[in-house]
Backbone:
């Protein structure tokens, strides 16, 4: 009986969030932005999580920008390069993911420009050859379609994918 009342007390206590001061919230945000590159929309989401009054959001975000904790161009570059190198995403998928983070098209383009054309083509070829080879027991058209669908789902441009898969088929990789 005593344990149950203690558990009820803990869960009720956990439900009551401690109100943070503006400076405490800024400290948490600075730590959040130091950990990895962030964009303004992620920082605003963090402010909502911390329960900070919406009236203070823009002021706090501006302060983080002034202190260089937030830089959307730097974020776009880090995001684009990271997603391309680590997850092997194509430019279209990276573009749309950055759009969901409310970045401007110009800033997104600056991030995408950091991906070398040579490296981009190399990754696309590698993925295409691997996928096509993994489907060797499929019929010709099914093999082609599944390879193209896979690459398009990864965010590579249709024209590049189509011409590359056609080359692979013609050269019988």
Residues:
């Amino acid at each position: 009986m005593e344990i149950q009342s203690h558990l009820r007390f803990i869960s009720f206590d956990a439900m009551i969030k401690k109100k943070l001061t503006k400076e405490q919230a800024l400290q948490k945000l600075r730590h959040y932005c130091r950990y990895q590159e962030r964009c303004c929309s992620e920082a605003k989401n963090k402010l909502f999580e911390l329960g900070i009054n919406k009236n203070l959001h823009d002021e706090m975000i501006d302060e983080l920008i002034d202190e260089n904790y937030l830089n959307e161009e730097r974020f776009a570059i880090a995001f684009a390069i990271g997603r391309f190198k680590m997850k092997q995403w194509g430019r279209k998928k990276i573009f749309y993911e950055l759009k969901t983070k409310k970045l401007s098209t110009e800033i997104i383009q600056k991030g995408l420009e950091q991906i070398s054309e040579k490296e981009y083509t190399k990754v696309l070829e590698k993925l295409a050859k691997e996928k096509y080879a993994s489907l060797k027991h499929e019929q010709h058209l099914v093999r082609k379609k599944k390879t193209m669908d896979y690459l398009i789902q990864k965010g590579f441009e249709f024209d590049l994918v189509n011409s590359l898969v056609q080359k692979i088929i013609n050269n019988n990789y």
